[in-house]
TrEMBL record:
TM regions (residue ranges): none
Descriptive protein name: 3-phosphoshikimate 1-carboxyvinyltransferase
Recorded family membership: Belongs to the EPSP synthase family.
SUPFAM superfamilies cross-referenced by the UniProt entry: EPT/RTPC-like (SSF55205)
InterPro entries named in the record: Enolpyruvate_Tfrase_dom, Enolpyruvate_Tfrase_sf, EPSP_synthase, EPSP_synthase_CS, RNA3'P_cycl/enolpyr_Trfase_a/b
Function: Catalyzes the transfer of the enolpyruvyl moiety of phosphoenolpyruvate (PEP) to the 5-hydroxyl of shikimate-3-phosphate (S3P) to produce enolpyruvyl shikimate-3-phosphate and inorganic phosphate.
Residues holding phosphoenolpyruvate: 10, 109, 157, 327, 376, 401
Record has Lipid metabolism as a keyword: no
Quaternary structure and partners: Monomer.
Length: 419
């Protein structure tokens, strides 16, 4: 029974860094994710004057409830949307002038509704080039707090950023949310705020955050459930078995729900108290699935869809078009390169069974996958490569965003699943 050790959650590490930086006291984070996104987040905090000790298995953060330790800083957020959206929000609670910029793709990704909400709360935030995009400057003078309305229909990260900010404001926040995608990520935020001493209230679409700040703690980071999806999918398509320790019934991450999709397709799934096991059990079935809540796993499902006996249709995933790339089109293009029949619409993708192209004919090689700099495209099509010979990538290294050691770990699993 191969057990796979999955690195820490990107989303939980980013939140933990924010909370620890804002808390009163010293926080220890156990098993943080070490990857481009989270190291970029920690580096950004460093630029803002926070002190972070980074030992391999535990990070120690000196909290500063009063905000950044420097009066001015230039912060490069790399390719990480959590960094690019959470750090300017944290900085707003301090006193000083802070400039933020990001990678070319992150500059293209939106944050307009978050900046509008911050401005509605009195924050002096200016976009340098394009309204609602990086680069931007926050001239921070603390945040009074109060009522604000937010459209989080494009990204739940806008709401997470405001929730995290709430306890750092003088009066607390009442956030009315009109639209919301990726709702389980908000649950992660609320659960983690609780671990740092803050209880968020809920009245329908209104989130109520009390003032008063965070308490330092020791916090253990769960393995990343989105990363685990590639390993679970590998079991499902090879008829093998994979167990991921550390992700069980009490897991915070909604993306563990991907195993329910695999179960509907015919895999055997056991979610235990502190581990999840997926066992491939013959031919996978087609499925129609709404992935609004777990859209980071859309590419994982798309990449294994040709191996199902019926069509696979994934719905309600419009916002995957504004991630590290336009994931709906990137998945469609790469599946077509492999010979699959695929259609897309504004917020859906449908994949018909089978691969009719070169890949399925003996003696021919698969295809080079166009990565678009997107870690999830590479990790997803690595799963396809278990069944299609000759799958290669134009930019395999882009997995560094969330899992620098992915190819080694996946290669090792491949050896155990397909000796
Ligand atoms: O809050 C978070 O940590 C995340 C929320 C999700 O984004 P959206 O809310 O933009 O869908 C997810 O796709 C992203 O990988 C991480
Ligand atoms: C969308 C993703 O990342 P982010 O939005 O945090 O950059 C992701 O990891 O799939």
């Amino acid at each position: 029974m191969p057990e796979v050790d999955i690195p820490g959650s990107k989303s939980i590490t980013a939140r933990a860094l924010f909370l620890a930086a804002a808390a009163d006291g010293v926080t220890t984070l156990r098993r943080p994710l070490r990857s481009d996104d989270t190291e970029g987040f920690a580096e950004g905090l460093g630029r803002l004057g926070y002190r972070i000790g980074r030992a391999p298995d535990a990070w120690q953060v000196d909290g500063r409830p009063q905000g950044p330790a420097v009066a001015a800083a230039d912060v490069y957020c790399r390719d990480g949307a959590t960094t690019a959206r959470f750090l300017p929000t944290l900085a707003a609670a301090g006193h000083g002038t802070y400039r933020f910029d990001a990678s070319p793709q992150m500059r293209r990704r939106p944050l307009g509704p978050l900046s509008s909400a911050l401005r509605d709360l009195g924050v002096d935030l200016r976009h340098e080039e394009k309204e609602g995009h990086h680069p931007l400057t926050v001239a921070a003078a603390g945040v009074r707090g109060g009522e604000v309305t937010l459209d989080a229909g494009q990204s739940s990260q806008y709401l997470t950023a405001l929730l995290l900010l709430g306890p750092l404001t003088r009066e607390g926040l009442r956030i009315t949310v009109t639209e919301l995608v990726s709702a389980p990520y908000v649950e992660i935020t609320i659960a983690m705020m609780r671990a740092f001493g803050v209880e968020v209230g809920r009245e329908g679409d209104v989130f109520v955050v009390p003032p008063g700040g965070y308490r330092a703690t020791t916090y253990a980071i769960e393995p990343d459930a989105s990363t685990a999806s590639y390993f679970f999918a590998a079991a499902a398509v090879t008829g093998g078995e994979v167990t991921v320790p550390g992700l069980g019934e009490g897991a915070l991450q909604g993306d563990l729900g991907f195993v329910d999709v695999l179960r509907r397709m015919g895999a055997e799934v056991t979610v235990g108290a502190d581990a999840t096991t997926v066992r491939g059990a013959g031919q996978l079935r087609g499925v129609t699935v709404n992935m609004r809540d777990i859209s980071d796993t859309m590419p994982t499902l798309a990449a294994i869809a040709p191996f199902a006996s019926g069509p696979v249709r994934i719905e309600d995933v419009a916002n995957t078009r504004v991630k590290e790339c336009d994931r709906l089109e990137a998945c469609a293009e790469n599946l077509r390169r492999l010979g699959a029949e695929v259609a897309t619409g504004p917020d859906w993708i449908e994949i018909r069974p089978g691969l009719s192209g070169r890949a399925s004919r003996p003696g021919f090689s698969g295809a080079e996958i166009k990565s678009y700099g997107d870690h999830r495209i590479v990790m997803s099509f690595a799963v396809t490569g278990l069944r299609v010979p000759g799958v290669s990538f134009d930019d395999p290294g882009c997995v560094r965003k969330t899992f620098p050691g992915f190819h080694e770990a996946f290669g090792a699993l491949r050896g155990r699943l397909m000796p």
